[in-house]
Amino acid sequence: LSDWSSDVCSSDLDTVVVDDWPPGQTGWAVILSSKSQSQFQEADADAIADEAMAAGVPLVGVLDSSQFPSLNPGYWAVFSGPYASEAEAEAAATTIRGQGYPDAYPREVQP
């Protein structure tokens, strides 16, 4: 879990949940889904995150893309991560695509 282990809510790697992106940290995420904040509430993104966790996706969280300059603003992003490198995130994305998220893609997240 690299430097962010203190932000993890569960120590069981099969059910790890990340509440939020670790404050001030740059890293890589796999974006499972992003929904416009003008059409969806955070609760809608939370429901997608719950579904992802039930499907076995690790390290699931929701972030407000407007808080991160490296992301397009105005979206609730359901993610898996953080991952330490692009290669690690790409490997995770490959696995996550097979878990029912065919459009999952890696993205660097910078505060």
Summarize the structure in short.
The chain has 111 residues and is α+β, with helices and mostly antiparallel strands. The protein is built from two helices and four strands, in the order βαββαβ.
Annotation, overall tally of beta strands: 4
The computed structural class is: alpha+beta
Largest sheet at a glance? Answer: 4 strands, antiparallel
Instruction: Tell me the β content.
Output: 25-35%
How would you explain this protein's 3D organization?
Residues 1-17 have low confidence and may be disordered. This protein has helices at 42-54, 86-97, and strands at residues 27-36, 60-64, 75-83, 105-109. A four-stranded antiparallel sheet has the order 2-3-1-4, with helices on one face. It has two helices and four strands, in the order βαββαβ. The longest helix is centred in the middle third of the chain and has 13 residues, at 42-54. Helix content is 23%, strand content 26%. The chain is of the alpha+beta class.
Helix-strand layout with pairing:
Layout: E1 27-36, H1 42-54, E2 60-64, E3 75-83, H2 86-97, E4 105-109
Antiparallel strand pairs: 1-3, 1-4, 2-3
